[in-house]
């Protein structure tokens, strides 16, 4: 796996393209806007998404998907969850035969309740075994600054997971493999919602006990959903579960946490959206699709429900806190 296309030149697409290029791969990055592609190829910068980061000399970018996909042995999908279906549909005819499709997106599709690998297999019309997922504590800016991190490459076909692992491993990026795609994707999608809750709590002025309680009970409701959908429970103790949850809930670099903080301080959804400058905070939409998925499978997800109501039903963040604490008392493992 030498020639790789990365489709999406936002923060994570650009940082992951850098990871692959630093690992010695021949990478072409697709950017929606030609001026972003020109800046990456010409100046080795993507100032809109990764200010101050110098990109590898070998990294090329284009706004033409035909050029990005030509000869690719793996195709990395780095666009937001809710646009992935439409983006991929426009690229489907260009995908090389038998290629491994790698999803970086952390969300659940609105309306269908599908995980991103399900959307990818459906739209690209390929077997699930051709779709891999990369998930873990991977804040793009830290990785772009070459700070050490680990991640998980999930694929039902172990050989394909190993190929992506080998293609991306470098001196600051350590990928592990796993076959539990369901658990990895749920971990990645649900932690964004829990990070919104932690941000809301921080915005309300609450400290570390509240954060730790939300992280732990957030993991409990994620694991309950995972059990209902057939995930391996141990995945939630790993990098794509607890690892990503802790990084996202604790970091001021997280868009989801920052978005929640604004809501907790009393900003409206529209104000918080404006402050995000077009960058995606996936949990804002996925709180609804995850809540629906939980309801469909009879899974109680009180934190997710609270976040959804603060984001979309105008629930006062203080009332969310009061409601969570006022729930019926129960045993921890119930
Ligand atoms: N930024 C991070 O630290 C990490 C992000 N992720 C996930 O990776 C996925 C992509 O995230 P980022 O690159 O951070 O997002 P971003 O908001 O920084 O960039 C999104 C990219 O998708 C492109 N795009 C293509 N079609 C689009 C459309 N129709 N609407 C909006 N944007 C469109 C945008 O032009 C932009 O280049 C998300 O699911 C995110 O949760 C996962 C791990 C780390
Ligand atoms: O997924 C991430 C870290 O692993 C990035 O989180 P945010 O999208 O909240 O910035």
CATH level 4 superfamily of the largest domain: NAD(P)-binding Rossmann-like Domain
Total tally of structural domains: 2
Helical run tally? 15
Number of strands: 8
Radius of gyration over all CA atoms, rounded:
19 Å
CATH architectural group of the largest domain: 3-Layer(aba) Sandwich
Helix content: 40-55%
Q: What strand order characterises the main sheet?
A: 3-2-1-4-5-6-7-8
* Mean model confidence by pLDDT: 97
Task: Characterize the biggest β-sheet.
Answer: 8 strands, mixed
The H/E string reads EHEHEHEHEHEHEHEHHHHHHHH
| Gross morphology | globular
Q: What small ligands are held by the chains?
A: 1,4-dihydronicotinamide adenine dinucleotide, 1,3-dihydroxyacetonephosphate
Q: Provide the β-strand percentage band.
A: 5-15%
In whole angstroms, the N-to-C terminal distance is 45 Å
The secondary-structure class comes to: alpha/beta
For this structure, the CATH topology of the largest domain is Rossmann fold
Low-pLDDT stretches are: none
In the CATH scheme, the class of the largest domain would be Alpha Beta
Report on the architecture of this protein:
GO terms for molecular function: glycerol-3-phosphate dehydrogenase [NAD(P)+] activity. Its EC number is 1.1.1.94. It is an enzyme of class 1 (oxidoreductase). The chain has 334 residues and is an alpha/beta fold. The chain has 2 domains: 177 residues, NAD(P)-binding Rossmann-like Domain (Rossmann fold), CATH 3.40.50; 137 residues, N-(1-d-carboxylethyl)-l-norvaline Dehydrogenase, domain 2, CATH 1.10.1040. The chain has 15 helices and 8 strands. α5 links the parallel β5 and β6. The longest helix has 23 residues. The N and C termini lie far apart (45 Å).
